[in-house]
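[Automated response] Your request has been received and processed.

Submitted sequence:
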Amino acid sequence: MINLDPMFSIARELNVGRPTVKKYLENPEQTISKRPPGPSKLNPYWVLIGQLLGQDSQAKALVILQRLQSQGFDGEITIVRDYLQKIRDMGVKPELLTRALAIFA
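Generated structure:
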């Protein structure tokens, strides 16, 4: 069966809806903009994480998660692991992290 609706064909090829195709065909200068990420669930706990890392720079994510949960954190371990990985990859010393976070908190 041959489809004569070009918007349908384009939508199917790009895996988007026909209204999306129509929108961009009517205004080709329009660009796709992504929303900036929202605040992290960890934001209120940065100082505490810095303090915990100051006490033990190699603290495991599970231990930190348990301490955060005792303070009301309702996130999952993945976000804690990702944050610790970023901090450790940057080579930030825990004592500097604690001081910096205390200043900006």
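Summary generated for your ticket: Residues 65 and 76 are 8 Å apart (CA to CA). The chain has a mean pLDDT of 83.
If you did not submit this request, please reply to this message.
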